[in-house]
Amino acid sequence: MSYPCRIDLHMHTTVSDGTDTPNEIITHVREAGIELFSVTDHDALKGCAIIRSLLKKDDPAFIAGVEFSCKDERGRYHILGYGYDANAPSINDIVATGHGFRMSKLMKRLAFLKSEFGFDFTDDDVASLHSLDNPGKPHVANLMVKYGYASTKEEAIEKYINKFHSKNEYVRPEDAISAIIRAGGIPVLAHPSYGRGDELIVGDDMDDRIKRLIGFGLKGVEAFYSGFSLKLQNEILAFAERYGLFVTAGSDYHGKNKLVRLGDTNLTDASAYPNGLCEFVDAVLSGT
User: Fold this and answer.
1) Which of 14, 39, 183, 265 is the most exposed place for a label (fewest CB within 10 A)?
2) Are 171 and 70 contacting, i.e. CB atoms less than 8 angstroms apart?
3) What is the model's pTM?
4) Percent of the chain beyond pLDDT 90?
5) Bridge partner list, 19
6) Distance between CA atoms of 165 and 6, rounded to whole angstroms?
7) Nearest-5° angle of CA 65, CA 7, CA 221?
8) Beta bridge partners of 50
9) How many other CB atoms are found less than 10 A from the CB of residue 15?
């Protein structure tokens, strides 16, 4: 099989916390010369449905994706799902659960900003946030900048929004993984080396984490990632080979909400494909 030279399997649209609409994502994917891509909006399938309706015959190959922010007693995990049946009850149920947690967290975050810092927003502002598909930190941060509570979106997030810590309102990793599998999809651990904030997970800690998630049904790891050093990349590739996991590559592009370029995955070309990435591309493009 001939593999695409440029792939990016981790990006976000305005359906979650990106700044590009699904239509703009397609345009930018074409301009970047990407041959295989996936949209992985947080707790949402809508962006992928829109993408599919807009794709033309000669457009790059597309894989349906999704990303769940998960947490349990051992830490936080971002679980990606690829190639699922968008009509399957399991994937729709877990998306609804994640969305419900996200909306509840939004209201608690706004209440925290008001009680701790005196930041207040109008009813129209709150209604506008609720009208979004999946409002998150960038949306609140942009509103803070609008009112002069912070000079930049980055300052708003780092200095104020990240002071808020929500308890117990996360999808558990085993539930996300199970839902993806039951929908015929492939569950993948996003940017495995990164935990909460500046936390870096390596060595035996990473080994324990991956083995535990494999026990839940994890099938792959995102080894090629925009924020990885060569050392981190090679460690994740070694774990993938050790445990027979699929490998994926993603930039985590959010448009103007992150300083990450579309297609920036640290995967140079098709000749650099490890076996796990070849197997993943074969699996999703063949529909298995």
Assistant:
1) 14
2) yes
3) 0.90
4) 77
5) none
6) 37
7) 60
8) none
9) 24
**pLDDT value of position 15:** 94
For residue 94, count CB atoms less than 10 angstroms from its CB and return exposed for 0-12, middle for 13-18, buried for 19 or more: buried
35-56: b (≥16 Cβ within 10 Å) or e: bbbbbbbbbbbbbbebbeeeee
Q: Which two tokens stand for residue 111?
A: 């209440």
pLDDT digits (tens, 9 = 90+) for 139-155: 899 999 999 999 998 99
Find where tokens 């922010």 sit. Answer: 69
Residue 3 has a pLDDT of: 85
Q: Is the pLDDT of residue 270 over 80?
A: no
DSSP states of 153-204 as a string?
HHHIIIIIGGG----S-SB-HHHHHHHHHHTT-EEEESSTTB-STT-B--HH
H helices of the chain, in order, are 22-31, 46-54, 89-117, 123-130, 137-146, 153-155, 173-182, 203-216, 230-243, 275-285
Tokens of 254: 């959010």
The pLDDT assigned to 121 comes to 92
CB neighbourhood size of 33 (10 A): 11
Say if residues 83 and 63 touch (Cβ distance below 8 Å): yes
pLDDT digits (tens, 9 = 90+) for 28-62: 999 999 999 999 999 999 999 999 999 999 999 99
CB 112 within 8 A of CB 78: no
Check if the beta carbon of residue 8 is closer than 8 Å to that of residue 35: no
